[in-house]
Protein backbone atom coordinates (compact mmCIF):
# COMPACT_ATOMS: atom_id res chain seq x y z
CA UNK A 1 0.00 0.00 0.00
CA UNK A 2 0.99 3.65 -0.39
CA UNK A 3 2.85 5.21 2.47
CA UNK A 4 3.49 8.75 1.19
CA UNK A 5 1.09 11.30 -0.20
CA UNK A 6 1.80 13.49 -3.22
CA UNK A 7 0.26 16.95 -3.50
CA UNK A 8 0.55 19.07 -6.62
CA UNK A 9 -0.45 22.71 -7.01
CA UNK A 10 1.35 24.69 -9.75
CA UNK A 11 3.58 27.48 -8.47
CA UNK A 12 2.99 29.60 -11.57
CA UNK A 13 -0.76 29.57 -10.94
CA UNK A 14 -0.29 30.86 -7.40
CA UNK A 15 2.09 33.57 -8.58
CA UNK A 16 -0.35 34.64 -11.29
CA UNK A 17 -3.29 34.72 -8.87
CA UNK A 18 -1.31 36.73 -6.33
CA UNK A 19 -0.19 39.19 -9.02
CA UNK A 20 -3.76 39.76 -10.21
CA UNK A 21 -5.04 40.28 -6.66
CA UNK A 22 -2.22 42.73 -5.92
CA UNK A 23 -2.94 44.70 -9.11
CA UNK A 24 -6.63 44.90 -8.18
CA UNK A 25 -5.76 46.16 -4.70
CA UNK A 26 -3.29 48.69 -6.09
CA UNK A 27 -5.98 49.97 -8.45
CA UNK A 28 -8.42 50.48 -5.60
CA UNK A 29 -5.76 52.07 -3.39
CA UNK A 30 -4.78 54.45 -6.17
CA UNK A 31 -8.34 55.67 -6.63
CA UNK A 32 -8.74 56.07 -2.87
CA UNK A 33 -5.52 58.10 -2.55
CA UNK A 34 -6.62 60.29 -5.46
CA UNK A 35 -9.98 60.83 -3.79
CA UNK A 36 -11.81 59.63 -6.90
CA UNK A 37 -14.67 58.12 -4.93
CA UNK A 38 -17.08 57.92 -7.87
CA UNK A 39 -14.72 55.72 -9.90
CA UNK A 40 -13.71 53.81 -6.78
CA UNK A 41 -17.30 52.76 -6.15
CA UNK A 42 -17.79 51.94 -9.85
CA UNK A 43 -14.64 49.84 -10.20
CA UNK A 44 -14.69 48.12 -6.81
CA UNK A 45 -17.09 45.44 -8.05
CA UNK A 46 -15.21 44.42 -11.23
CA UNK A 47 -11.83 44.50 -9.48
CA UNK A 48 -13.18 42.34 -6.65
CA UNK A 49 -14.69 39.97 -9.21
CA UNK A 50 -11.45 39.56 -11.16
CA UNK A 51 -9.48 39.09 -7.95
CA UNK A 52 -11.85 36.37 -6.71
CA UNK A 53 -11.90 34.74 -10.15
CA UNK A 54 -8.09 34.63 -10.23
CA UNK A 55 -8.04 32.88 -6.85
CA UNK A 56 -10.65 30.35 -8.00
CA UNK A 57 -8.94 29.66 -11.33
CA UNK A 58 -5.27 29.70 -10.41
CA UNK A 59 -4.72 29.54 -6.63
CA UNK A 60 -7.09 26.87 -5.36
CA UNK A 61 -6.88 24.01 -7.94
CA UNK A 62 -4.65 21.09 -6.94
CA UNK A 63 -4.49 17.29 -6.88
CA UNK A 64 -3.71 15.09 -3.89
CA UNK A 65 -2.61 11.48 -4.42
CA UNK A 66 -2.96 9.57 -1.17
CA UNK A 67 -3.30 6.06 0.20
CA UNK A 68 -7.10 6.00 0.07
CA UNK A 69 -7.38 7.53 -3.42
CA UNK A 70 -7.07 10.73 -5.41
CA UNK A 71 -8.65 14.08 -4.53
CA UNK A 72 -9.00 16.59 -7.35
CA UNK A 73 -9.75 20.20 -6.39
CA UNK A 74 -10.99 22.04 -9.48
CA UNK A 75 -12.42 25.53 -9.87
CA UNK A 76 -16.00 24.86 -8.82
CA UNK A 77 -15.91 21.40 -7.23
CA UNK A 78 -13.81 18.81 -5.44
CA UNK A 79 -13.87 15.19 -6.63
CA UNK A 80 -12.71 12.32 -4.43
CA UNK A 81 -11.85 9.20 -6.44
CA UNK A 82 -10.97 5.90 -4.70
CA UNK A 83 -8.27 3.85 -6.43
CA UNK A 84 -10.58 1.00 -7.57
CA UNK A 85 -12.77 3.52 -9.41
CA UNK A 86 -9.95 4.63 -11.73
CA UNK A 87 -10.20 2.77 -15.02
CA UNK A 88 -7.87 4.84 -17.18
CA UNK A 89 -5.56 7.84 -16.95
CA UNK A 90 -5.24 10.13 -19.96
CA UNK A 91 -3.44 13.40 -20.80
CA UNK A 92 -5.04 14.46 -24.09
CA UNK A 93 -6.16 17.96 -23.03
CA UNK A 94 -5.28 17.80 -19.36
CA UNK A 95 -4.60 15.03 -16.90
CA UNK A 96 -7.94 13.20 -16.78
CA UNK A 97 -9.14 10.28 -14.66
CA UNK A 98 -11.71 7.99 -16.26
CA UNK A 99 -14.12 6.29 -13.85
CA UNK A 100 -17.39 4.39 -14.40
CA UNK A 101 -19.81 6.96 -15.82
CA UNK A 102 -17.59 9.98 -15.23
CA UNK A 103 -14.33 11.53 -16.35
CA UNK A 104 -12.48 13.82 -13.98
CA UNK A 105 -10.26 16.49 -15.58
CA UNK A 106 -7.52 17.93 -13.39
CA UNK A 107 -7.50 21.72 -13.79
CA UNK A 108 -4.14 22.03 -12.01
CA UNK A 109 -2.36 19.75 -14.52
CA UNK A 110 -3.01 20.93 -18.10
CA UNK A 111 -1.39 19.30 -21.11
CA UNK A 112 1.04 21.35 -23.21
CA UNK A 113 -0.08 23.41 -26.18
CA UNK A 114 1.43 23.15 -29.65
CA UNK A 115 4.64 24.93 -28.64
CA UNK A 116 5.01 22.78 -25.55
CA UNK A 117 4.43 19.61 -27.55
CA UNK A 118 7.13 20.55 -30.06
CA UNK A 119 9.60 21.07 -27.20
CA UNK A 120 9.09 17.54 -25.82
CA UNK A 121 12.23 15.42 -26.08
CA UNK A 122 12.51 11.65 -26.29
CA UNK A 123 14.15 11.47 -22.88
CA UNK A 124 11.02 13.03 -21.38
CA UNK A 125 8.81 10.13 -22.46
CA UNK A 126 11.05 7.21 -21.58
CA UNK A 127 10.41 4.77 -18.75
CA UNK A 128 6.87 5.98 -18.13
CA UNK A 129 4.25 3.73 -16.62
CA UNK A 130 3.14 0.85 -18.84
CA UNK A 131 -0.36 2.32 -19.12
CA UNK A 132 1.03 5.56 -20.62
CA UNK A 133 1.85 3.93 -23.95
CA UNK A 134 -0.61 3.28 -26.75
CA UNK A 135 -0.40 1.16 -29.92
CA UNK A 136 3.12 0.97 -31.32
CA UNK A 137 4.52 2.32 -28.06
CA UNK A 138 3.04 5.74 -28.91
CA UNK A 139 2.70 8.36 -26.20
CA UNK A 140 0.96 11.74 -25.88
CA UNK A 141 2.95 14.97 -25.45
CA UNK A 142 0.99 15.46 -22.23
CA UNK A 143 2.71 12.40 -20.78
CA UNK A 144 6.13 14.06 -20.97
CA UNK A 145 7.57 14.49 -17.49
CA UNK A 146 8.62 18.01 -18.51
CA UNK A 147 4.95 19.08 -18.50
CA UNK A 148 2.53 19.58 -15.55
CA UNK A 149 0.19 16.85 -16.80
CA UNK A 150 3.07 14.44 -17.35
CA UNK A 151 4.68 15.06 -13.97
CA UNK A 152 1.49 14.24 -12.10
CA UNK A 153 0.50 11.42 -14.49
CA UNK A 154 3.86 9.73 -13.91
CA UNK A 155 3.32 9.61 -10.13
CA UNK A 156 -0.35 8.69 -10.49
CA UNK A 157 0.25 5.86 -12.97
CA UNK A 158 3.15 4.46 -10.96
CA UNK A 159 1.00 4.14 -7.86
CA UNK A 160 -2.13 2.99 -9.69
CA UNK A 161 -0.21 0.29 -11.56
CA UNK A 162 1.47 -0.88 -8.34
CA UNK A 163 -1.91 -1.26 -6.64
CA UNK A 164 -3.36 -2.99 -9.72
CA UNK A 165 -0.47 -5.44 -10.04
CA UNK A 166 -0.69 -6.24 -6.30
CA UNK A 167 -4.38 -7.08 -6.71
CA UNK A 168 -5.67 -4.24 -4.53
CA UNK A 169 -8.00 -3.00 -7.28
CA UNK A 170 -9.70 -6.35 -7.88
CA UNK A 171 -12.54 -5.70 -5.44
CA UNK A 172 -15.32 -6.28 -7.93
CA UNK A 173 -18.03 -3.79 -8.85
CA UNK A 174 -17.58 -0.18 -7.87
CA UNK A 175 -20.22 0.93 -5.40
CA UNK A 176 -22.58 3.69 -6.52
CA UNK A 177 -21.49 7.03 -5.12
CA UNK A 178 -17.91 5.91 -4.52
CA UNK A 179 -16.74 8.93 -6.52
CA UNK A 180 -17.72 11.83 -4.28
CA UNK A 181 -18.35 15.26 -5.82
CA UNK A 182 -18.56 18.33 -3.57
CA UNK A 183 -19.49 21.65 -5.24
CA UNK A 184 -17.75 24.78 -3.97
CA UNK A 185 -20.97 26.56 -3.09
CA UNK A 186 -19.25 29.46 -1.33
CA UNK A 187 -17.06 30.12 -4.37
CA UNK A 188 -20.01 29.84 -6.74
CA UNK A 189 -22.10 32.23 -4.63
CA UNK A 190 -19.27 34.74 -4.21
CA UNK A 191 -18.48 34.79 -7.93
CA UNK A 192 -22.19 35.10 -8.76
CA UNK A 193 -22.70 38.06 -6.43
CA UNK A 194 -19.53 39.81 -7.60
CA UNK A 195 -20.41 39.25 -11.26
CA UNK A 196 -23.91 40.65 -10.73
CA UNK A 197 -22.42 43.64 -8.95
CA UNK A 198 -19.95 44.13 -11.80
CA UNK A 199 -22.69 44.13 -14.42
CA UNK A 200 -24.78 46.52 -12.36
CA UNK A 201 -21.85 48.91 -11.84
CA UNK A 202 -21.15 49.01 -15.58
CA UNK A 203 -24.78 49.63 -16.51
CA UNK A 204 -25.33 52.50 -14.06
Which percent bin holds the helix content? 40-55%
Strand order of the largest sheet: 1-2-3-4-8
* Number of discrete helical segments: 5
Q: List how many beta strands DSSP finds.
A: 8
Strand content is: 15-25%
Low-confidence stretches: none
Structural class: alpha+beta
Brief sketch in words of this structure:
With 204 residues, this protein is an alpha+beta fold. It contains 5 helices and 8 strands, in the order βααββββββααβα.
Any descriptors?
single chain, 204 residues, 2 domains, 5-stranded antiparallel β-sheet, 3-stranded antiparallel β-sheet, 5 helices, 44% helix, elongated, transmembrane, transmembrane helix
Q: What can you see in these coordinates?
A:
- The structure is a single chain.
- This protein is α+β, with helices and mostly antiparallel strands.
- The chain has two domains: 6-60 and 185-203; 68-183, no CATH class.
- It is built from five helices and eight strands, in the order βααββββββααβα.
- The protein has helices spanning 11-34, 37-59, 114-118, 148-165, 185-203, and strands spanning 6-8, 62-65, 69-73, 77-82, 88-90, 94-99, 102-110, 180-183.
- The strands form two sheets. The chain has a five-stranded antiparallel beta sheet with strand order 1-2-3-4-8, covered by helices on one side. A three-stranded antiparallel beta sheet has the order 5-6-7, covered by helices on one side.
Architecture blueprint of SSEs:
Layout: E1 6-8, H1 11-34, H2 37-59, E2 62-65, E3 69-73, E4 77-82, E5 88-90, E6 94-99, E7 102-110, H3 114-118, H4 148-165, E8 180-183, H5 185-203
Antiparallel strand pairs: 1-2, 2-3, 3-4, 4-8, 5-6, 6-7
Helix pairs in contact: 1-2, 2-5
Amino acid sequence: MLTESFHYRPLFGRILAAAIVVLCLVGLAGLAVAGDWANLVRTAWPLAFFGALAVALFWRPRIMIEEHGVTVVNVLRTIEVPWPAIQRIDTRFSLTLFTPGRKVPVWAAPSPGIRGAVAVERADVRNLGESAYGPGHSVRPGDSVSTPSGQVAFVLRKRWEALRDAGHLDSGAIEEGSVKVTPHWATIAALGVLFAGTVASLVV
